[in-house]
Amino acid sequence: MNRDKEVEAFRNGELSHEEELKYEIARELGLLDKVLESGWKSLSAKETGRIGGLMTRKRKSEN
Fold first, then answer.
1. What's the predicted TM-score (pTM) here?
2. Cβ pair 58, 25 in contact under 8 A
């Protein structure tokens, strides 16, 4: 999904559970504005790794 379509889907609440989780964590870390303006590629490796780690932790706690 390209960035514009993904942002539109986010704003309309039409994302998959996995994508919603990613955006929720980005919001918690204060990175959501940066993602919405410049896309996921604008994040550093450290920021991306932090999001991935928290997604894994939340998925494990859901099961």
1. 0.86
2. yes
Q: Provide the token pair at 32.
A: 């959501």
Per-position pLDDT tens, the chain of length 63: 677 888 888 889 898 989 999 999 999 999 999 999 999 999 999 999 999 999 999 989 987
Burial class for 38, CB neighbours closer than 10 Å (0-12, 13-18, 19+) = exposed
Cα–Cα distance between 51 and 56 in angstroms, integer?
A: 9
Q: Distance between CA atoms of 35 and 31, rounded to whole angstroms?
A: 6
Residue written as token pair 């790794």? 49
